[in-house]
Amino acid sequence: MTENKTLLKPSRPVGIVGYGAYVPRYRLPAKEVARMWTGGRAAGLPIKEKAVPGLDEDVITMSIEAARNAMKRAEIDPAEIRAVWIGSESHPYAVKPSSTIVAEAIGAAPHVQAADMEFACKAGTEAMVMAMGLVGSSMARYALAIGMDTAQGKPGDALEYTAAAGGAAFIIGPAEESLAVINASYSFVTDTPDFWRREHQIYPEHGQRFTGDPAYFRHITEAGKTLMEAAGTSAKDYAWAIFHQPNTKFPQKAAQMLGFSPEQIAPGLLSPVIGNTYAGAAIIGLTATLDIARPGDRILVVSFGSGAGSDAFDIVVTDKLLERRDKALKTQDYIARRTEIDYAAYARYRGKIRMK
Amino acid sequence: MEIPRHWRLKQQRYGLVGEVCPHCQVKVFPPRDVCPNCGGEARTPYTFSGRGEVYSYTTIYEAPAGFEDKAPYTVALVKLEEGPLVTAQLTDLGDKPVEIGMPVEMVTRRLRQDGDDRSILIYGYKFRPVMN
Ligand SMILES: [Zn+2]
């Protein structure tokens, strides 16, 4: 590997000791949103359907379940976890950490670092990079990183078709205990106002056409290219790749720009059937890919968060994956559990009906 | 406002943490520090597996204060595989009819808020049909 000082590479090798996904059971078809706002024009819908949380679900409850799945695969004592970090743009409280409740629920409290991260859709990978640092510096043996969202789009807005709920949790630990080793990560960040939400606003705003080339595609391709150059790899060295998936087309085009085939991104491309799970989107693609990967497979993951930035990861699966992956529910188990709802039920579940 | 009570109950509510009797090994939930079987002191924490089955159930259409926005919902007596019976809401039923003996598993969900929209959120166990 050529020396590259921009890579984020821990001095002690680290990896994924356990992983878990969560997707709520309700699905709102995109054509149902179209029925409500465009007279049912179904041409060019960005996805087939999106995952919607139930009345009793939020980022905290969904993070608890994903974390429990990760714990089942890791088979470690929760008291050995030294950090619980949750990336999300839909934390239930404006002030009071989601991470303390999740840490308590899985038995990781009280000897633990806890914090909530924000960076639009890359808040989850941000938590992963920080966990790599904590473990890679030997400050901790294990750290739990979660990316989870219950994203909301303004009624009738383009984002309402895709803004969805779901995510994933990863227990980062020493490489020798890992089911997949993370060789390195690389982050590419600029000040780009493509999407934002001001304090006290319910729904986000976006810069229309500005969201494509200068934001999503530039950051994803720069991060992916730089990481592969530093690693001395190209697309053909990877069995699988996952790119942040705000819709169906963007990750397909990003893959093509970086030289990846449709087959390489297929297992992780979930946005057509669950929507854009924001901080969970890239990493739930990773859990779905780990569910089918073989030892020795190399995986490229590149997230994207508006505002804007991308985190890229170079990952290699180890033999330990095979003995651990059946110990918890798989990503596709959650996708298969599906109850279709109409726009009225969606409006109720997402708190769009005022009771008083 | 019952913040101290919610705070005290958090572990048993979030993770179904009860007790095991060191004398006769009976598992106790909710925790009460005294074994209902042998009367001995039982203070050893025990985390239940979360698996059980529906023992009895009823559907609530006229919900009590704090739960109005959730109606209709189903409350069940769940027999945990370790023995104790617990009362809890069922969730994620989808189109599935509830049946006595139906296998269920514990999930941690948002139960309600402790007052108006400025109050704390209360999380705790519910049960859903077993996945897999
Ligand atoms: Zn006893």
What can you see in these coordinates?
The complex is a heterodimer of chains A (356) and B (132). Chain A is an alpha/beta fold. In chain A, α2 packs across α3. Chain A contains twelve helices and 14 strands. Chain A folds into two domains: 14-179 and 328-349, 3-Layer(aba) Sandwich (Peroxisomal Thiolase, Chain A, domain 1), CATH 3.40.47; 180-323, Peroxisomal Thiolase, Chain A, domain 1, CATH 3.40.47.10. Chain A has helices at 30-37, 59-74, 98-105, 123-136, 212-231, 249-257, 262-265, 271-274, 281-290, 320-324, 331-336, 343-349; strands at residues 14-22, 26-29, 49-52, 81-87, 113-117, 142-150, 165-174, 180-192, 195-196, 205-206, 240-243, 298-302, 307-317, 339-340. Chain A is globular and about 55 Å long. Chain B has a single domain (3-129), classed as OB fold (Dihydrolipoamide Acetyltransferase, E2P) (Beta Barrel). Chain B is globular, with a radius of gyration of 16 Å. Chain A binds chain B through residues 25, 54-58, 60-61, 64-65, 92-93, 96, 101, 104-107, 329, 333-334, 337, 339, 355, and chain B through 10-11, 14-15, 47, 68-70, 89, 91-92, 94-95, 107-111, 120-121, 123, 126, 131-132. The complex binds zinc ion (ZN). Residues 21, 23-24, 26, 35, 37-38, 40, 42 of chain B line the site of zinc ion.
Provide a compact summary of the structure.
The complex is a heterodimer of chains A (356) and B (132). Chain A has 356 residues and is an alpha/beta fold.
Q: What is the CATH third-level topology name of chain B?
A: OB fold (Dihydrolipoamide Acetyltransferase, E2P)
Mean pLDDT of chain A: 95
Q: What is the count of β-strands of chain A?
A: 14
Computed CA radius of gyration of chain B, to the nearest angstrom:
16 Å
Structural class of chain B, by secondary structure, is mainly beta
Secondary-structure arrangement, i.e. CATH architecture of chain B: Beta Barrel
The mean pLDDT of chain B is: 93
- List SSEs of chain A in N-to-C order: EEHEHEHEHEEEEEHEHHHHEEHHEH
Number of domains of chain B: 1
Tally of distinct domains of chain A:
2
Largest sheet of chain B: 5 strands, antiparallel
Q: Given the structure, what is the number of helices of chain B?
A: 2
